[in-house]
Design brief:
The protein contains 1 helix and 12 strands. It is mainly beta and 192 residues long.
Length: 192
């Protein structure tokens, strides 16, 4: 996975993006190029941005920009692969009150609908399950081709308390903001 920083946003998604049998033609099936794909998140503590990332994920895909409404997606994130700039923060965010990575080692996203908005812009709706809690989310999505690869990127916001992330004294949104931004970029190539 690339070490390049992405001005990403807080929490979620991805460690095994499995896009079901949807599209046709050249995009009948793709796999993730992990070293060129990224997921970042950013939240705020006491008003100061705190950025993290997920380091392990894989993707199988079946996206066709020409018939995106037929596409499906399943994304799985390895919650133990979370990394923050300081080792003690990384240890803390894996604990029960935050991600509870021991009890919930994966987060998943299951798509329900893709829509074209024109000019290479799309929207994806689906169900995000994090820490055992499922919520409906929508994310803008940009799709573009780069030689034989497809690049899918987007950014969306969740509320951490909707997923019981940061309980007890950490439920105070004056200390840790409820809003978390997630930014992702997946580079996909045709399945061999």
């Amino acid at each position: 996975m690339t070490k390049r920083r992405w001005w990403g946003r807080w929490w979620v998604i991805v460690a095994v993006l499995v896009l079901g049998p949807a599209a046709s033609g050249a995009w009948a099936g793709q796999v993730l190029v992990p070293e060129r794909s990224e997921i970042f998140f950013i939240g705020k503590q006491m008003g100061v941005p705190a950025e993290g990332k997920f380091q392990k994920f894989a993707v199988e895909a079946a996206l066709d920009p020409a018939a995106v409404e037929k596409s499906t997606a399943r994304i799985v994130i390895d919650m133990n692969s979370v990394a923050l700039p300081a080792a003690d923060f990384t240890t803390e965010v894996k604990r029960k009150r935050w991600f509870d990575a021991a009890g919930f080692p994966e987060a998943t996203f299951e798509s329900k609908r893709f829509r074209s908005l024109g000019d290479g812009r799309y929207e994806i709706d689906g169900t995000l399950t994090l820490k055992g809690v499922s919520r409906e989310i929508s994310s803008p999505l940009m799709l573009k081709t780069d030689n034989s690869e497809l690049v899918a990127e987007g950014e969306f916001e969740i509320k951490r308390l909707d997923f019981n992330v940061g309980d007890g004294p950490w439920a105070d949104t004056d200390t840790v903001a409820n809003e978390v931004r997630i930014r992702f970029k997946f580079r996909l190539r045709p399945q061999p």
